[in-house]
Amino acid sequence: MNNKILTYCDLGFIDYKEAWDLQQEIHSKRVANEADDFLFLLEHPNTYTLGKTAHKENLVGSEDYLKQNQISVYDIDRGGDITYHGPGQIVGYPIIDLNNWFKDTHKYLRALEEVIIKTCENYGLQCGRNEKHTGVWIDDRKIAAIGIKVSRWVTMHGFAFNINTDLNLFKGIIPCGIQDKSVTSLSKELKKEIDTNEVKEILLRNFFTLFSYEKIRAIQKVELYNQIYQSHFEKVVQ
After folding, report:
1. pLDDT digits over 57-73, tens only?
2. CATH of the domain at 166
3. What 8-state DSSP symbol labels residue 56?
4. CA gap 211, 6 in Å, rounded
5. How many domains does the chain have?
6. Range of the domain at 150
7. Structure confidence by residue, pLDDT tens digits, 189-213
8. Pairing verdict, β 5-13 and 47-50
9. What's the whole-number mean pLDDT along residues 143-162?
10. Which residues are annotated as catalytic?
């Protein structure tokens, strides 16, 4: 890999559309080689997202159900079917140039799974893969969903890892269109509340190692936004 710097930003609790817009902005910069590889870790408010191959009938929650639980719904540009994002779930958005790693989307998906598998191992939890379904599994229970977009060999979207997630909110959908499986979380499996900041640190370390980086450059959300909007302002002035 030519560029071995990973820029990391913890976006905290952030609206889905705001994070999606930010991804698109950074993706454009990465394609133009105006930014290093990025990894965002964050949490969203209650949201259902439908990927490009999603079946609308897998959204089973009524309008009343969506309003009652304050769930937003978005049709988005990643692969895969429908999934849930919400508080207590760590979402990871890597925006990395696969030209500098391996130009292989399947290898990339397996590497994202491995990041989460290694993280679960840190908590003494054995997870694995399902031959038919992308993601990370404990028997028939899905602990992490993965859905990506790759354009010009630069990635977007990523993974959703259930930590202290309210699993009841998966009842409004057929997760990933899979009817004969269930979902789980780190806290459910370990029967205790988990420190999400600690999990983020472990995820970052595993991502850093598995993707062979040499240096992490951490940036605060406010600093990142200032840089982006300053560059927009300069373009307008010119």
Report:
1. 999 999 999 999 999 99
2. 3.30.930.10
3. G
4. 10
5. 1
6. 5-237
7. 999 999 999 999 999 999 999 999 9
8. unpaired
9. 97
10. 176
Per-residue tokens: 123: 């908590």
Residue type, 47: T
195: Cβ contacts below 8 Å, ≥ 6 apart: none
Contact 31, 1 (CB under 8 A): no
Element (H, E) at 106: helix 105-122
Q: What is the pLDDT of residues 94-124, one digit of tens each?
A: 999 999 999 999 999 999 999 999 999 999 9
Closest to 14 measured CA to CA, from 39, 41, 40, 45: 45
* CA pair distance 162, 186, nearest whole angstrom: 6
* Token output for 214: 């040499």
Instruction: Please state, in angstroms and rounded to a whole number, the distance separating the CA atoms of residues 188 and 15.
Output: 25
Separation in Å, CA 142 to CA 81, 183, 223: 14, 5, 35
Closest by Cα among 179, 217, 160, 173 to 62 = 173
Cβ proximity of 60 and 132 under 8 Å: no
Within a 13 Å sphere around the CA of 164, how many CA atoms are in the beta-carbon half? 12
For residue 39, give every residue at least 6 positions away whose Cβ sits within 8 Å of its Cβ, in sequence order, or none: 6, 7, 8, 9, 92, 93, 94, 95, 96, 204, 207
CB 172 within 8 A of CB 61: yes
* Exposed e or buried b per residue across 23-38, where buried means at least 16 C-beta atoms within 10 angstroms of its C-beta: bebbbebbeeeebbbb
